[in-house]
Amino acid sequence: MEKEGHQNNSSSNEQDHDGFTMDEIPDLSWSSHTEYDVDALLGAVDQVNTTQTDDDEDQSSHVSEQTPSNRTKRFTMDQIQQLEAQFRVCRHPNLDARQELAAKTGLEERQVKACGDENKGIRQELGKLKAENEELKQRMLNPICFRCRNPTLATQPTSEKRRLLNENARLRDEYVRAKAYLDRLIREGAERRASPSAHLHLGGSATLVSHAERAMEELVMLATKGEPMWLPAMDGETLNHQEYVLQTFPGLLGLCPPGFVEEATRESDTIRGTAMYLVSVLTDANQWCEMFPGTVAYVSSSNVITGDSSSSHDGLIQLMDAELWVQSPRLLNRSVKFLRFSKKLSNRRWAMADVSVVDGVCGVEPGGSSTGCRLLPSGCLLEDMSGGYCKVTWVVHAEYDETSVPSLFRPFLQSGQALGAYRWLRCLQRQCEYITVLRSSLVLPSSSSSFSAISTLGVGRRSVMELARRMTASFYAAVSGPVTVPATSSVDEWRVSSGSGAERVEAVVRLAVWNCADIMPGEPAVTVLSATTTVWLPGTPPMRVREYLFDLQRRGEWDAHADGGEVQELGSVATSSRLHGNAVSVLQSTSSVSLDASCFCILPDVDTDGTDSKVLILQETTTDVSCSLVVYSLVEENLMRGIMDGRERSNVFVLPSGFAILPDGHGRAHAGDTAATNSSASAAIDDDHSSNAAGSLVTVAFQTPLPGNPDTGAFEDACLQLCHAIAKIKAAVGASDIIPV
Predict the structure, then answer these.
(1) Are residues 594 and 446 in the same domain?
(2) pLDDT tens digits for 200-216?
(3) Are 454 and 572 in contact (CB under 8 A)?
(4) 622 in a structural domain
(5) How far apart are alpha carbons 381 and 645 in whole angstroms?
(6) Using CA atoms, how far apart are residues 270 and 167, in angstroms rounded to an integer?
(7) Number of domains in the chain
(8) Which residues pair with 615 in a beta bridge?
(9) Are 27 and 174 contained in the same domain?
(10) pLDDT tens digit string along 465-502?
(11) Model pTM greater than 0.85?
């Protein structure tokens, strides 16, 4: 058989190239790794004239080209299918199997063997190609410089591509809104020219109702739809602008004003309370402000467009004015005028839609878009659940003026952790827990038997909690800035520093001198110096700062009233059963602190008879993933005992100081959810540090009464108090740097 193959090769090599056939394929260098029996692969040939003498070879060659008997015979389709079927069963058949297959297909045994060897060669070649392809992919992922052969900087096209896609979507959205706004102006102008009386006949109320109803439809769509309206992201989900524009074209508010940026967030969770109760709170301006003290600075409901707020809230549309704030003196308040529309969707479901009113909507003064914030259809969906709980889906879709926001705060606002859905829902959850404890008659644990009244008597507990609520509200006004600054107030800004070298701390301090009676009605006419500042701790998670400030064993490090001594907890009320660390506490320092030495509280009705009175510390700590607070004030001991006994002391004026700890927006908002409810501090810190390597924005406030005209010494003392606390925080949490905002 091998001899026959050699005869074929010899005969083929002597043929002229005019009659070159597949039998005459030369031995190419690129295929030298695999030996191919071409005759066996292409089929048998007629060997009748191959045994002639050399003298007759040329003549027989020409004859073979003329006759079809010497042409190559290829495998039939049936033979190929049978061979492939056999090789799928067994890649390397033995001699008996090859002979059986040859007899079955009408081929020779050597042809069957050659076909198997060819399959093996193809597989080897395929393996080499795959390996080469993988090597090329690795080289593309790890490029090197062709000149120095050193690795180049790793490119990250994903983040840049994502940024470009978002920018493209934003520009497309602006274009669509501009076109829709222009079309609407043209259409409304034509309608007014055609029938000027018809537009006046509609009146402002009918147009506002239509505006609110469209906002309700859009809110329900945003709250209930999943993909592709909301796309999954590393930290929750993000709004798909292309899909949003497609579904809401032409939009309600028209073109986004210059300098404004958009934020869209959505969050869901269970809240303690019924849907009807939450609707009644959200439709009452005073209750809404009390439910969100850290978010709502001021609110007024100037007009009821339709419905009756005193009875059923279904179909109620209100025109509301509100100012929103964040706990930092460096951020301006957001002012927004909007419609609030409450609607009962089903037996157990309610919806509350908010939407701004701007130019082009009847009954509203022009210039609404210049307030610094516009609410696109936002709000919440409320659904009653069993056990006295309610499922709340909160949506915030807003546009705000970013030109007035300091650069260090922009990631914080863009992430939605400042005034996004996450912040609103966490505040609602915490306040509902607080109200439940306030109204509860259950006995809560106390850490001291001498102050057991704080936990055993419901009246005493409520009195202490109400005083703590007033104290925290005063703290919010101090660190966020009053809504209106009277003419008698003055505000200055100082840049101060303390320490040297690695321990040097710098801060930009806002010093405000104001009269309590002008800012907070009902308070005594006391002149107060308020010093506040915000610093940025990059790379230091908020939970680490919170755990340090919550630790009573280390309070003497930063609290000047503890004077380096220990602080004991005499009694406490846990204000949340789900969130660890939320409590109202009465503390006592082991160091000798007298009322005359204190500058943190004013007690106009306490007569000390010229003697020093012992003081206690009233403190409220609140925490969730969006914000943590440590607010405290000194209170005379006998007065505090009277409050815990249930005696009404509404004329007590507390002057709080404390800390507000906010995320800086660089980390993931949801990373600390588990840690926030974890009772183990160390586990919480470790989990937060590993999964959410973000920074903190820490606001520090120090307040003291001024007995006379303010002087430079009082200002310097207040600034040094802030720098001392910041330096202790930096050392305790291991912050590498502190940047003044």
Answers:
(1) yes
(2) 333 468 888 889 999 99
(3) yes
(4) yes
(5) 41
(6) 34
(7) 3
(8) 636
(9) no
(10) 889 999 999 899 888 865 555 666 677 777 777 777 66
(11) no
